[in-house]
Amino acid sequence: MQPGLFISFEGIDGAGKSTHISALAQAFKAQGRAVTLTREPGGTPLAEKLRSLVLQDAMDPLTEALLMFAARRDHLDCVILPALARGDVVLCDRFTDATFAYQGGGRGFDEEVLSQLERMVQTSPDQAALVQPALTLWFDLAPQEAAKRLAGVRVPDKFESQPLAFFQRVAQGYARRQRKDPERFARIDAAQTQSSVWDAVLAVCVAKGWLA
Ligand code: TMP
Questions:
Q1: Residues in contact with ligand 1 (CB, 6 Å cut-off)
Q2: Fewer beta carbons within 10 angstroms: which end of the chain, N or C?
Q3: Annotated domain spans of the chain
Q4: Could you tell me where the DSSP H helices lie in 31-80?
Q5: How far apart are CA 176 and CA 119, in angstroms?
């Protein structure tokens, strides 16, 4: 059995990661790997309930951060860790970097507190190290461009309806996370055409030796 592989996908709303997540799932399946495709906040019945609360209801930044981590804990326990133990490739649409970018960068919430929550939620008694993705594909797009892509696509949720300045802070939050952990992050220039973005995603996975 091959060991499990955990990959997360990040970027501001409108950066265009969704298409590539499904395509990458197909690419891994075509090579015989079992794939667990999931998302945050969400991925379990409880975490999906927390998702609708946190995406729709107004709340203070600490409540918002706690709900993100509560959803994450349930998701890790019920879906991500069991899938990795089975040897699956886990493709997760957003993970903790989103909390640092949105709650830390966007809302201006204390990143030291977020780091404490990260340690609390992502360390389990039988796991010596912090559970983190082996790779984070960061779809980087200028907030002005992302706003153009999002305009009129669907009814915006609480985050999507934030002003441009919020997304500029979110983008800076992602850049800070990348600087802290450059080995884990692969920055994808999401301003390219969809097919060039896909080539870049594939190239990262081929370079890691995960796809032929
Ligand atoms: P999605 O639309 O990409 O599924 O993401 C849901 C929204 O939730 C998106 O606007 C980003 C936001 N979010 C946070 O604010 N903090 C988090 O920790 C996560 C995972 C998502």
A1: 13, 39-41, 55, 68, 93-94, 98-99, 102-103, 159-160
A2: N
A3: 5-207
A4: 45-56, 61-75
A5: 18
Rounded distance from Cα 212 to ligand 1 centre (Å): 31
> How much is the pTM?
0.97
Distance CA 110, CA 70 (A): 17
Question: Distance, CA 39 to ligand 1 centroid (Å)?
Answer: 9
Report d(CA 154, CA 200) in Å as an integer.
28
The encoded tokens of residue 165 equal 């300045």
Which amino acid is located at 192 in the chain? Q
> What CATH number does domain 5-207 carry, 3.40.50.720, 3.40.50.1240, 3.30.930.10, 3.40.50.300?
3.40.50.300
Band the pLDDT of 1: cuts 50, 70, 90: confident
Residue-wise pLDDT for 113-151, tens only, equals 999 999 999 997 677 789 999 999 999 999 999 999 988
